[in-house]
Specification:
With 469 residues, the protein is of the alpha/beta class. The protein has a domain of 267 residues: Glycosidases (TIM Barrel). Helix content is 44%, strand content 13%. The chain is built from 17 helices and 14 strands. The strands form four sheets. The chain has a seven-stranded parallel β-sheet. A three-stranded mixed β-sheet has the order 5-7-8. Helix 7 packs antiparallel against helix 8. It is globular, with a radius of gyration of 22 Å. One of its GO terms (biological process) is carbohydrate metabolic process. This is Glycoside hydrolase. Belongs to the glycosyl hydrolase 1 family.
């Protein structure tokens, strides 16, 4: 099946590293996963998965953004969903993961226009109608905060819009206003699709619809009142910007104050539509950062959302871990879940992404990923014991795939994908064996000696695979 134009396939003005990686992705005619196969579903079964999270490509299903449905796209997703269900694996589906049909971007500017609300709702309607009898958990947008900041402020992800001095090689956009406009339209599109689902499908299909954000856990750099206040402000900008309207019906006061007239206001009708529209929240979490107060940024006349935040995020990771890896701080995941519990009334939560990054050429003996998963899953279990209403966990990722910022140069997968092999052969890493052992009832702790046993089994299997890294 050929791929259809999306914002990923028609970009020109972008950093050369990302551009060349996207060209490599185009050669393979895949977006994200390296072409999921029926054998991959069998791998999931063998691993012990009972759920698989994936996104539907809007342009693959409806190439022009609206109008006729592509029968081959429809068949692809039906085949995938049926195969998952037939093997006892739940399909958790995301409707938008940054790949807007290029036709809508060209016609009216995509997410910058209110017209996107109607088109997104119509696209969601097709998905609910065609797949909803087998899909019970829907997420409207993935990492909406990253999409808004990366796509319209710093300009590092499609549609690569930004303005100087906030982005790199900016050719179009306005970093001071567009992130707020797009965020507003994202919330309205989500709420409109959720209203449709609840009115037309939910009773019959018995499903749920939610919203996903990315979040670090943020800790004050010092115990000063300034850094403590800045940390709350940063949480308001990273989490509250989207979650506050979905729970309370409006943006946090500090965002409205600092952004002023640059942030749209909800009408009473819009506030009512958005409030309570999410049955659950999805969380993508990888690491913990420190926060330092930055009051000087508010003195800048032309500010973007990060300057409005008036806080600096500090990556105190030097010398602690190898390059390209995250520190292992499970307390951070517990902290974010406790934050949702205390601030937002303990809503149903799913950990949609959590995993360790390594370089692509790292060994299949990925002990750092095993230690990361062991720590964070343990932290999640502690959070649940402490009352968190978390319903599920997905590690990122099952297979090595094309990463948004690093392309194929970094790796998150439990399974290595050999891009030099015509068949894109998969090889299990040590983490795949550990995760499978855990899912099938094994202990989570390394103290039990389970890792040593898995390592022995892994070594034996790896010797028979003859894979050279």
């Amino acid at each position: 099946m050929t791929s259809h134009p999306t914002l990923f396939s028609v970009q020109e003005a972008q950093p050369i590293r990302l551009k060349e990686l996207q060209m490599r992705m185009e050669e393979l005619l895949v977006f994200g996963i390296p072409w999921l196969t029926l054998e991959d579903v069998k791998l999931m079964v063998d691993t012990g998965l009972d759920a698989y999270r994936f996104s539907i490509s809007w342009s693959r299903l409806i190439p022009n953004g609206r109008g006729p449905v592509n029968p081959k796209g429809l068949q692809y997703y039906n085949n995938l969903i049926n195969e998952l269900i037939n093997h006892g694996i739940q399909a958790h589906v995301t409707l938008f993961h940054y790949d807007l049909p290029q036709a809508l971007e060209d016609e009216y500017g995509g997410w910058l226009s209110r017209k996107i609300v109607k088109d997104f709702t119509a696209y969601a309607d097709v998905c609910f109608r065609e797949f909803g009898d087998r899909v019970s958990t829907w997420t409207t947008l993935n990492e909406a905060n990253v999409f808004v900041l990366g796509g319209y402020d710093s300009g590092i992800v499609p549609p690569l819009r930004c303005s100087s001095p906030f982005g790199i090689n900016c050719t179009s956009g306005n970093s001071t206003t567009e992130p707020y406009i797009v965020a507003h339209n994202c919330l309205l599109a989500h709420a409109s699709a959720a209203r449709l689902y609840k009115k037309k499908y939910q009773v019959k299909q018995h499903g749920f619809i939610g919203f996903n954000v990315f979040s670090y856990w943020l800790i004050p750099l010092t115990n000063t009142i300034e850094d403590i206040t800045a940390t709350q402000r940063a949480n308001d900008f990273y989490i509250g910007w989207f979650i506050d309207p979905l729970v309370f019906g409006d943006y946090p006061d500090i965002i409205k104050k600092n952004a002023g007239s640059r942030i749209p206001s909800f009408t009473p009708q819009e506030s009512k539509l958005v409030k309570g529209s999410s049955d659950f929240f999805g969380l993508n979490h990888y690491a913990t950062l420190n926060v330092r107060d930055d009051p000087e940024s508010l003195k800048i006349h032309q500010r973007d959302a990060l300057a409005d935040m008036a806080a600096k995020l500090i990556f105190n990771w030097d010398g602690v871990i190898p390059d390209e890896e995250f520190p292992i701080t499970p307390s951070g995941l517990q902290g974010v879940l406790e934050y949702f519990k205390q601030v937002y009334g303990n809503p149903p939560m799913y950990i949609h992404e959590n995993g360790q990054m390594t370089s692509r050429n790292a060994s299949l003996n990925d002990t750092s990923r095993v230690k990361y998963l062991e720590g964070y899953i343990g932290g999640l279990l502690d959070a649940v014991r402490n009352g968190s209403n978390t319903r599920g966990y997905f590690t990122w990722s099952f297979l090595d795939l094309f990463e948004l910022l690093n392309g194929y140069r970094s790796s998150f997968g439990l399974y290595f994908v050999d891009l030099n092999d015509p068949d894109l052969k998969r090889y299990p890493k040590l983490s795949a064996h550990w995760y499978s052992n855990f899912l099938k009832g094994g202990s989570i702790t390394t103290n039990s000696g389970i890792i040593d046993e898995v390592d022995k089994n892994f070594s034996a299997k790896s010797e028979s695979s003859h894979l050279t890294m």
